[in-house]
Design goal:
- The complex is a heterodimer.
- Chain A is mainly α.
- The radius of gyration of chain A is 20 Å and the shape is flat.
- Chain A has eleven helices and no strands.
- Helix content of chain A is about 80%, strand content about 0%.
- In chain A, helix 2 crosses helix 5, helix 5 packs across helix 7 and helix 5 runs antiparallel to helix 8.
- Chain A has one domain: MetI-like (MetI-like fold, Orthogonal Bundle).
- Chain B is of the alpha/beta class.
- In chain B, about 40% of the residues lie in helices and about 25% in strands.
- Chain B contains nine helices and ten strands.
- Chain B has a six-stranded mixed beta sheet with strand order 6-7-8-3-9-10, with helices on both faces. A four-stranded antiparallel beta sheet of chain B has the order 2-1-4-5, covered by helices on one side.
- In chain B, a hairpin with a 2-residue loop joins strand 9 and strand 10.
- The longest helix of chain B has 16 residues.
- The chains are: A mainly alpha, B alpha/beta.
- Chains A and B meet through helix 6 and helix 7 of A and helix 2, strand 6, helix 3 and helix 5 of B.
Chain lengths: ~220, ~250
């Protein structure tokens, strides 16, 4: 354990990248997820179809494949670069892949939330003269979000753990699990304490997330 | 009372699948008039009410409001709806907004009224329906009767040309019906143009200028409340009245 603790700065550095990947992907997947949801309930059939096709195809593709497509496909084979430095280039590709993937789950959660809103409220908003987008922005999305805070917490926890795929799926992005593997390979610390240490590191990130979202969901719940 | 036609329905037809719910409806509501629509359930009266602000699209015929035909979609329709207030059977207050926010949402977001002015007018309306003290509560904290009065204030806040009531007291506990009917009676006496779908015959007698009796998607009979309740002409109306007035 001592050998592990003497490398604690490497562990912290690894997790700092995990946190960066998670937060940025959470932000982008949230925005994209709301957009997809808006498209899926819109009165325009083309938008509905596009969003449904996107969600159904990406949601049913393994994350490893999505990230490999970003890393090997778009980044290496097609040579699309997002940054001059390799480390940042693959980092941003990982953020894009994780966001594209996670947005589907955000969208599915929100859509479930929309189904909890009585149709009458939407009709009432319409009868006041609110447009479709105002209705969505002021009545539907705020209530749908509150209804699915808990499930969104689960999505965020899954995202936190999914960042570990980014280092193995063609991108080699720096994050906690990659640091762990490097420490194994370099033999700087015994395997079991290292495993345990990183596992605890993930718990430190995800357990409070779960509790926070549980608390938040009770706090903002809409009473009917 | 003036007799300018405000809402005019001509040859309106609507189907739900195979069911012909509105059959050649012709109806005119004049400015300042209170029209009560009654009839057995399934007669199409709620659907009729909902077509006037196009919550239900129609298959054929025309509906005009203040001389203008209802636009089919988009901003034009939204603008027209802002002139037609609607009060629903199940209140449909916005559950995540306070009572006052429910009332000011339309004015601030649709009419672009300033916040301070909208709040002031909102409070006036809430006081008018005697619910001013509850302004900061959420809908779930109010009784059904209180919620329905908020819904009326919310509709009034848009300064509508006409108010539609779709069975406003049908979801209320009996002891709360009167407080809502009182507000509606006041509005009627102040000259608000109203179309009211209801089973409250007392209200129809007291406040209506005209009673429209519907059955099987058709307007069977139209008359003043006095004439209609004392001397119904059609057999359907006689039958309907005999059923509801005997118990």
């Amino acid at each position: 354990m001592e050998a592990f603790l003497s490398n604690i700065d490497r562990v912290v550095d690894g997790f700092s990248w995990t946190v960066r990947l998670t937060l940025l992907s959470a932000l982008f997947s949230f925005v994209l997820g709301i957009l997809l949801t808006a498209m899926r309930v819109s009165p325009v059939p083309l938008l509905r179809g596009l969003a449904t096709a996107y969600v159904e195809s990406i949601r049913n593709t393994p994350l490893t494949l999505v990230l490999l497509f970003c890393g090997l496909g778009l980044n290496s084979a097609l040579g699309v670069h997002l940054s001059g430095t390799v480390a940042l280039d693959v980092f941003w590709w990982a953020v894009i892949g994780l966001s594209a993937y996670t947005a589907c789950f955000v969208s599915e959660s929100l859509r479930a939330g929309i189904n909890t809103i009585p149709l009458g409220q939407v009709e009432a908003a319409r009868s006041l003269g609110l447009t479709f987008t105002q209705n969505l922005r002021l009545i539907v999305i705020p209530q749908a979000l509150r209804a699915v805070i808990g499930p969104l917490g689960s999505v965020l926890i899954a995202l936190t753990k999914n960042t570990t795929v980014a280092s193995v799926a063609g991108l080699g992005v720096q994050e906690a699990s990659r640091e762990m593997k490097l420490m194994f390979d370099q033999g700087v610390a015994p395997v079991l304490p290292t495993f345990l240490g990183f596992a605890i590191g993930f718990l430190i990130l995800t357990l409070p997330t779960g509790y926070f979202f549980g608390w938040l969901s009770k706090r903002v719940a809409v009473v009917r | 009372m003036t007799s300018t036609p405000l809402v005019v329905l001509e040859n309106v037809n609507k189907h739900f699948g195979d069911l012909h719910v509105l059959r050649d409806i012709n109806m005119t509501v004049n400015s300042g008039e209170v029209v009560v629509v009654i009839g057995p359930s399934g007669s199409g009266k709620s659907t009729l009410c909902r077509t006037i602000n196009r919550l239900e699209p129609i298959d054929s015929g025309t509906i005009t409001l203040d001389g203008q035909p209802l636009p089919a979609e988009g901003r034009g329709l939204a603008r027209l709806r802002s002139d037609v207030g609607m009060v629903f059977q199940s209140f449909n207050l916005f559950a995540h907004k306070t009572v006052l926010q429910n009332v000011t949402l339309g004015p601030t977001k649709v009419l672009r009224t300033g916040r301070a002015e909208a709040d002031k007018r909102g409070m006036e309306l809430l006081d008018r329906v005697q619910i001013g003290e509850q302004a900061d509560k959420y809908p779930a904290q109010l009784s059904g009767g209180q919620q329905q009065r908020v819904a009326i204030a919310r509709a009034l806040a848009m300064n509508p040309k006409v108010l539609l009531f779709d069975e406003p007291t049908s979801a209320l506990d009996p002891e709360m019906v009167q407080e809502v009917l009182d507000v509606m009676t006041d509005l009627a006496s102040e000259g608000m143009t109203m179309v009211v779908v209801t089973h409250e015959m007392g209200f129809a007698r007291r406040a209506a200028n005209r009673v429209v009796f519907m059955a099987d998607g058709q307007i069977v009979e139209e008359n003043t409340p006095d004439e209609f309740f004392t001397k119904p002409r059609s057999e359907r109306a006689q039958d309907f009245l005999s059923k509801i007035l005997t118990h």
